[in-house]
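Hi F.,

I've been meaning to write this up properly since the lab meeting, where we talked about keeping a consistent format for the predictions we share between groups. The idea is simple: the sequence comes first, exactly as it goes in, then the structure tokens exactly as they come out, then a line or two of notes. No screenshots and no reformatting. I'm using this chain as the first example so we have something concrete to point to.
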Amino acid sequence: MSTRTGIYPGTFDPITRGHADIIRRGRKLVDHLIIGVTTNPSKNPMFETEERLAMVKREVAAMDLDNVSVVGFNALLMKFAEAQGASVILRGLRAVADFEYEYQMAGMNQYLDDEIETVFLMADVSLQPIASKLVKEIALYGGDITSFVSPAVRDDVVARVERIGMKGDY
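Output, unedited:
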């Protein structure tokens, strides 16, 4: 019997409670879920790839999930999925805007490899507003991000904001 492997790719800059929700729920759909932490310079990351990789590994370890692993990659998603033996790409959706982007990406990915299916999971209603970009923006302007990320990630983000020295003027 073959093992069904899924990939949940993202920059995870930083990993949020919304990401954790998709990981917990998505792992039930496959035998092995690989969280693929990727580079994406166009997103202007707050954390370097190695820092994000360590952060995601720490958060996944804290969730104590036996069929989830974390791997960094810097390649075309479909090439990474093929190399990992994945048959599923897992994507989380928050809003209509996410769907439009993800729908286009799923179509391109299907064109590249029609043996790998994309599966969309809606974020839990209570977590739908959470986006890494907004978490960073709130933190950069001195806002409280406790509700959006784990305590350890909050500490990482606050330390980074203190290091780069940006907080809003009142």
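Notes:
The CA atoms of residues 93 and 99 lie 6 Å apart.
The chain has six helices and five strands.

If this format works for you, I'll send the rest the same way.

G.
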